[in-house]
Specification:
This protein has no helices and 77 strands. It has 1097 residues and is an all-beta fold. Strand 53 and strand 54 form a beta hairpin. Helices cover 0% and strands 45% of the residues. It has a 6-stranded mixed sheet, with no helix packed on it. The protein has a 5-stranded mixed sheet with strand order 2-5-10-7-8, with no helix packed on it. It has a 5-stranded mixed sheet with strand order 12-14-19-16-17, with no helix packed on it.
């Protein structure tokens, strides 16, 4: 191999920098390594994956005749890695394979595996594609051949499974489908025979290697399997480990069950265990144990409890946890206020939810709040509520740790403060500075949502009468002992409140302050409450005072400042909001500030609060224009150029005679004493856009430096990746109608430069293209006669040094612009395959609707016309011929005003770098397909476009779903593309419907039913599920859900609904998309009979 030394100026090359010096890896022994000083290798072999380019080091491993898994996935790995495996010699390498999988979750590194030949020496070239010179841990593992890769050859067990194995399968056995859904990777099969009636649990919580595992449990013969239970993968389960999962099912003595373990588009080693559970007597709601209200502690455990399905109105706290393994207690209310206290043992973290009603359909009454207690080292929770006389209450004590554990629970009666409700608010308080002590320890949530996060936190109410001045309310005293928030309301009564403002943590980590304008004689309501979902209560001290409005509260009353004068003392006490000013750093409509003005004199200006003695963080926003029409030009806050990181600094070029308006804001929204200095300074020649240096296309290379330059101003209209804290210099070029390549690539200087191309006036710039932070070139098409500004900047705030800049002309790609889109004709053929490239393409920042895609590389365009009203158009870049990370976006309309139809990134291909989009085609409508790269990448692609027949769904012809005790789990796949769209408006469930929908129905079951789209790969759009009963013409809402927050792997875009189904009743389930979203879905229905469900009688 030939070595090209580009990066080794700071470190000596490692011993294994070249193939001839490879480090031998021993199987199952982790080895630390580093890329520091590694050089770039030119390798005379092509693996065809495009991954073997970059600084690299070498390892060797001896083949075992079995599969070998090579992994750098470890918390000791600090960089992403890519590996290529060769056989042969260093002089004549033969490609074996390259990276096949990235790491699980947040772990850095990569994985590769191959079927090895015994005693063959394999050379592994490991690189970091991004060029980072950091450490990694590498481990080679031998994976023995497995005989249980099919149901018919499953490993036989009786009553208990405890085994280590691997789902790795590269020997060509292919994918196998189980009855619980489509398999993403092949896996291993086990058979277990139940030795008794009861609940069984299968678990991979002792998973050895971090990867997504999925467990399916089936019954019946291998050629006619019935899905019994399905355990999806999790990012993290407390007590389980990363990638592990669990599943439970009702087992019958003597019956044999098939357990299939696989990965979600992943593979690795795992440890599977399965056993029968000795469930506690109060495992189900119907078997709840009685509690007295005498404060006597009762011991219990969730260790062998089963997971409970929420039936009815689930407490919101529970929705954040995938596992809710718990037990039940009950008591009858006496019309008094009740507190339930829970003390956990060990790491079980037992929490509590309170329900009323009956077990068949429960209603959330209260949920647990974390409470620190020295006598309860395992963690304590409490719940408080008013227990109505004669009403039965059910206490669900659940552990979020899959291992469960012991706890103690007790009930006591108490009396809350009278002002826990709004209409009993204390006041009106004296505005002259009255201080009042309070405590929410014995308060309860009164049902009024706070103004911030709409949590269920207990609070206390107070009132004030406005006097026309500013009123400040705070809990800043040291007497405040919990994480407090303040919400301010106005209205004619407690039944008709309107949130005005709120604050959290403005005068400390736990205390808050808020100031608001008042009208004389009007009543205002103050609620002091905790931060979070009822999890914070305690003692506080509330201060209320009236303060005069700041003299420079408005832009029109700005305080004039002359550059070079002493620091101007200022205060945001008495400041209010500026509704008409556009956001620049902080939003002026929600963060109070004071105004100053300075006139430019043709010199660089710096405005700073760095010299003030403020104890709170301040930000600076600078505007041009007039007070009626302000334009943000720059700003700064939390500025690290200041000795005090709490201050702000902003620099800009003050054009002669132009007025600039400076808004100083307290970042936390409260009042703060501060100071402002405005100075002029000598700048480098091309430090600002207004004094940019001219460069020529195909001219000489320009040498430059950012040493001594200031940081770049903010450009609110620009979408370029601009680093506002880093030094920068400016150039400009006059457009000549050609495609221009701007480059700072040089072997002499570092590559750590960012390039942005902008057009327009210096006060109102628009992004044309940018290079991002890891590339040194940018390509753009320059319109004849238009001026383009080139911003060269570093990528860190303390960077300085020299660079070289060249501009060269280039040939434009024919379909580089939407207006030159290549026409694709599907009138005579339902499928087209196009081979293309984005290597010579430019970015298109003129698109106002980006479809939500991330910083794109160069793009090319295609146009096609829908030929049938019932067709679905599908475009993919899933072909192995793709050699970069693609994105696909589809638009309709014309090129001057494009409207996003759909988009996708990472659907298919090696490491999921291919993309797939589908959409319902309107007959005669023109569509534009944009092929572009993720994160500035570019390369060659194969675009496949097909026309397929779509499906329609409506309430009158739903898909029937049959779930029963013998078939408790059903998985359905489909698409909402080209399905019917209901009329725009609110549905019976109160949701705004603007998407295509499909319908399902369930009839004649009695028990708990769940419908969910929370599958790791099966659903590709943001779903909404609604459940109705009645007739199609007069539907009544049962339940609905958008964004199941309990599923962290779904980024909260999937949906889950749960309800208690009555025997013989027909339920309609409608699946649609949020904000018009549509696409493929995987919908799982599960059922628990009423005698077994949490809602059982």
């Amino acid at each position: 191999f030939e070595s090209l030394v580009f990066y080794s100026c700071f470190y000596d090359a490692p011993e294994n920098d070249m193939c001839s010096g490879s480090t031998m890896l021993a199987l199952d022994e982790p080895t630390m390594g580093t890329f520091q000083g590694a050089t770039i290798d030119s390798i005379n072999s092509d693996c065809g994956f495009g991954t073997d380019e970059g600084q690299g080091v070498w390892y060797t491993v001896v083949g075992t005749g079995s599969e070998i898994l090579l992994s750098t996935c470890s918390y000791d790995t600090w960089v992403g890695t890519s590996a290529t495996v060769y056989s042969g010699t260093c002089d004549q390498p033969q490609c074996v394979t390259a990276d096949q999988s990235s790491c699980f979750g947040w772990v850095s590194g990569g994985r590769v595996s191959w079927k090895s030949e015994i005693d063959v020496l394999y050379h592994v070239h490991l690189i970091n594609p991004d060029g980072w010179e950091d450490q990694f841990e590498i481990l080679a593992t031998n994976i023995p051949d497995a005989n249980n890769r099919a149901c018919a050859t499953a490993t036989q067990e009786v009553g208990l499974i405890d085994t280590s194995a691997s789902t790795l399968d590269l020997a060509g056995t292919g994918f196998e489908e189980d009855s619980c859904g489509k398999v993403g990777t092949s896996g291993l099969w086990y058979d277990v025979a139940a030795t008794e009636d009861g609940v069984m649990r299968a678990s991979t919580c002792s998973t050895i290697d971090s990867f997504y595992t999925v467990i399916s449990v089936m019954a019946g013969d291998c050629d006619a399997l019935t899905c019994i239970a399905y355990g999806t993968s999790y990012d993290y389960l407390p007590g389980c480990g990363e990638g592990g999962t669990e599943v439970e099912w009702k087992a019958t003595s003597g019956e044999s069950y098939h357990i299939f373990v696989r990965g979600i588009d992943d593979y690795g080693t795992f440890q599977l265990s399965s056993h029968s559970l000795d469930t506690p007597q109060n495992d189900l709601c119907k078997d709840a144990s009685s509690l007295s209200m005498e404060g006597v502690s009762v011991s219990g455990s969730t260790e062998s409890a089963t997971q409970d399905l929420i039936v009815g109105n689930q407490c919101s706290q529970e929705t954040f946890y995938k596992v809710r393994r718990g037990v039940w207690y009950s008591f009858t209310g006496k019309g008094t206020f009740v507190r339930a206290n829970v003390c956990s043992e060990g790491n079980s973290e037992t929490q509590i939810s309170i329900y009323s009603g009956d077990c068949s359909k429960s209603q959330c009454v209260a949920e647990g709040q974390y409470e620190y207690n020295e006598s309860c080292p395992g963690g304590g929770y409490k719940a408080t509520w008013k227990a109505e006389n004669g009403v039965d209450y059910y206490l669900f004590l659940f552990s979020t740790n899959v291992q469960g554990g012991g706890f103690e629970v007790s009930l006591t009666e108490f009396t809350p403060p009278s002002n826990y409700v709004c209409d009993k608010g204390v006041g009106p308080l004296d505005l002259s500075g009255e201080t009042i002590a309070g405590s929410t320890l014995d308060s309860i949530y009164d049902g009024t949502p706070d103004c911030s996060y709409k949590t269920l936190s207990p609070g206390l109410w107070y009132t004030v009468i406005g006097n026309g001045d500013i009123v400040r309310v705070d809990t800043c005293s040291q007497a405040t002992q919990f994480d407090s928030q303040i919400s301010i309301y106005r209205g004619d009564s407690c039944a008709n409140l309107e949130c005005m403002t709120y604050n959290d943590d403005s005068c400390g980590a736990l205390t808050s302050a808020v100031q608001f304008p008042t009208e004389a004689g009007e009543k205002y309501y103050i609620k002091v409450h905790g931060h979070g979902y009822g999890s914070s209560t305690g003692n506080f001290e509330l201060s209320v005072q009236s303060i005069p409005m700041a003299a420079n509260n408005f832009c029109s009353s700005s305080t004039p400042v002359t550059p070079g004068t002493e620091v101007v003392k200022a205060s945001t006490f008495g400041a209010t909001y500026s509704e008409d000013a556009p956001p620049c750093v902080l939003d002026p409509s929600s963060t109070p500030g004071i105004w100053f003005t300075v006139q430019g004199r043709g010199k660089a200006i710096t405005a700073s609060t760095c010299l003030s003695s403020s104890t709170s963080s301040t930000s600076i926003a600078v505007y041009s224009g007039t007070c009626d029409d302000l334009v943000c030009i720059t700003g700064g806050g939390y500025d690290y150029h200041c000795e005090d990181s709490l201050a702000g600094i902003a620099s800009w070029y003050g054009e002669d005679g132009v007025d600039y308006y400076i808004l100083v804001q307290a970042d936390d929204g409260s009042g703060v004493d501060t100071g402002l200095s405005v100075t002029e300074f000598e700048n480098v020649d091309n430090d600002f856009c207004q004094i940019a240096s001219r460069v020529e296309v195909d001219g000489e290379t320009v040498s430059g430096t950012i040493t001594g330059a200031t940081s770049v101003p903010i450009f609110p209209n620009a979408t370029c990746i601009v680093y506002s804290e880093t030094p920068s210099v400016w150039y400009y070029v006059e457009g000549d109608g050609s495609t221009i390549v701007a480059s700072t690539c040089s072997e002499q200087f570092s590559y750590d430069w960012s390039l942005s191309i902008l057009k327009g006036s210096c006060g109102d710039l628009e992004c044309v293209a940018d290079s991002g932070w890891e590339y040194c070139t940018v390509r753009f098409t320059a319109t004849l006669g238009e001026r383009y500004y080139i911003l060269v900047q570093g990528t860190s705030i303390d960077q300085a040094g020299e660079f070289s800049l060249t501009l060269t002309s280039s040939e434009a790609t024919e379909n580089d612009l939407c207006s030159n889109a290549e026409v694709v004709d599907l009138s005579s053929s339902s499928a087209k395959t196009i081979v293309g490239t984005t290597i010579e393409a430019t970015q298109d920042h003129s698109i106002t609707d980006t479809c939500g895609t991330f910083s794109s590389g160069g793009d090319v365009w295609y146009q096609l016309v829908g030929h049938s009203s019932d067709s679905v158009l599908v475009a993919t870049t899933c072909d192995p011929g793709n050699d970069f990370d693609t994105q696909l976006s589809v638009y309709k309309g014309d090129c001057s005003k494009l409207e996003c139809v759909t988009t996708n990134d990472d659907f298919c291909g090696i490491d999921y770098t291919g993309s797939r989009v589908s959409w319902a085609a309107e007959e005669g409508a023109a569509y534009f397909i944009r092929v572009h790269g993720y994160d500035y990448s570019g390369g060659n692609f194969v675009l496949s476009i097909t026309s397929e027949t779509g499906t329609n769904g409506n309430c009158e012809s739903p898909t029937e779903v049959e779930v029963s005790e013998s078939s408790p789990l059903v998985l359905l796949t489909g698409t909402t593309v080209n399905a019917d769209k209901p009329p725009l408006g609110l549905s019976p469930c109160g949701l705004f419907v603007d998407s295509s929908v499909v319908w399902f129905t369930i009839t004649g079951v009695s028990g708990a039913v769940t419908a969910s789209t929370c599958s790791t790969t099966g659903t590709v759009f943001d779903t909404v599920i609604e459940v109705f009963e009645g007739q199609c013409e007069t539907l009544t809402c049962v339940t609905s859900n958008d964004d199941d927050v309990s599923d962290p792997s779904s980024m909260s875009s999937c949906s889950t609904v749960k309800w208690s189904a009555e025997e013989g009743k027909v339920y309609f389930i409608r699946l649609g998309g949020f904000a018009g979203a549509e696409g493929e879905f995987e919908l799982v229905f599960s059922f628990i009979p009423s005698t077994e469900a949490r809602g059982g009688d």
